Amino acid sequence: MKIADFPQSVIDENVDYTVKEITNVIKKYGPRESGNENCLAAEKHIKKEMDTFCDETRFESYKMAPKAFLHWTKLVSAAVFLAVVVCGILVFTSVISFFVAQCIVGGVLFVSLLITVMEFLMYKRFMDPLYKKVEGHNLLGVRKPTGEVKRRIIISGHIDSAYEWRHIYYGKKFPLMTILMGWTIGGAIISFVLAVITIIANFVDMGAFGEFMLNYSYFFHFLTALAMVTLFLFVDFKTISPGANDNLTGTYAAVTALRMLDMAGVNFENTEVCAMITDGEEAGLRGCKQWAKDHYDEYVNSGVETAVLCVDTLTDLEYLNVYNRDMTGTVKHNEKFSQLVMDSAKEAGHDDLKFANVFFGSSDAAAFTQAGITSTCLAAMDPAPADYYHNRRDSYDRLVPEAIKTGYEVILSTIFNFDEKGLG
User: Which positions ≥6 away from 155 have C-beta within 8 Å?
Assistant: First the structure.
């Protein structure tokens, strides 16, 4: 089957169904912190729905530390601020020298930047051992083919919602996020470089430049310390986004992919279609990382050609793209599958999609790709970022049915083309 032959009425009905269901989930279960009871309750609600049109549904649980991914912002900012201020006081009271102060601040900055890179750039479970673990749950729904399984396509979306990012919420009409994060990260890097240069200047004659660094470079650290105040206030752990667009739209893209096939009576001979609902994406891709680890052999070595299409926010139609680069540009998704999604979008009548880069943050697709599993990402969100991103404005009143519909057409077209020719 081609997308042109698929009944449009089924797509339209499922767009309406999605809007109603997202509204219902938010009203009934509220914000869904990674691994909490609201998250699981919402997944149970979805499982009950999927039981009516899936051949199999099941939960898989795992342990995660939901606050480890972002709570480091509190630890790092407090450590740098205290190091700069306390050492500054000790210098001006002649307890220690500028050189010793530079050594201490440089060391604290090094550790802080290491944590930032490991957690926020590379999404490693670096800080997890320091935080309380909870039980997260991933949900899978399967629509089996009529014959032998030769191919498997998984549509995935995460159900958990994010802690509020104050920079975005309070900077609605001003690029507060870009300015403050640029100041924070840039200041920390510059301060670290200055500290290293100053330490070297203490042992190597650099002339007037070295003297200047030894006597005055420390004062720049106070600007960095001030920036750390904004980093400390960055995440509001007491306020959780409703997560309507990010990412109940992706969640229901996975659910309705199977629902639409069922409603239209589409049965594939050799292609298994799955809906994967992950928990823990907002906690640093924890659920997806665990799923990829547990199912690597099944998805890579079983002889069944498997591809995962992660859908993350279907809202800002002008930014609907195939994100073939991820995790702040450090991960490149499967080229053939990304091209298949792009070609499928064009076949569905959407010629304006482009290949794009998740240049700040990451999607679940990155965890699959890093694990060696074929994956790519489909998303439609203003990368500025959008004013609803990770804050309380992301509620059902901000849903965009047209963007949801377009995303569903691209997803269905991708499923049909993957069934027909796979990635070969």
Answer: 253, 254, 257, 258, 273, 274, 275, 276, 309, 311, 411, 415
Beta pairing partners, 44: none
CA 197 to chain centre: 36
Q: What value, to the nearest 5°, has the Cα angle with vertex 311 and ends 347 and 411?
A: 25
Helix axes 98-116, 68-92, angle to 10 degrees: 170
* Neighbour tally for 99: CB within 10 Å: 16
Residue with the two structure tokens 């292609």: 271
What whole-number distance in Å separates Cα of residue 413 and Cα of residue 81? 52
Question: Side chain identity at 221, as an amino acid letter?
Answer: H
Q: How many CB atoms lie within 10 A of CB 236?
A: 15
The owner of tokens 């600007």 is 223
Q: What is the pLDDT along the chain (424 residues), one digit of tens a residue?
A: 999 999 999 999 999 999 999 999 999 999 999 999 999 999 999 999 999 999 999 999 999 999 999 999 999 999 999 999 999 999 999 999 989 999 999 999 999 999 999 998 999 999 999 999 999 999 999 999 999 999 999 999 999 999 999 999 998 766 888 899 999 999 999 999 999 999 999 999 999 998 999 889 999 999 999 999 999 999 999 999 999 999 999 999 999 999 999 999 999 999 999 999 999 999 999 999 999 999 999 999 999 999 999 999 999 999 999 999 999 999 999 999 999 999 999 999 999 999 999 988 999 999 999 999 999 999 999 988 899 999 999 999 999 999 999 999 999 999 999 999 999 8
Q: How far is CA 184 from CA 79, 155, 172, 327, 357, in A?
A: 14, 37, 19, 20, 23
Amino acid at 223: L
Torsion sign over Cα 329, 331, 334, 337: negative
The residue type found at 299 is Y
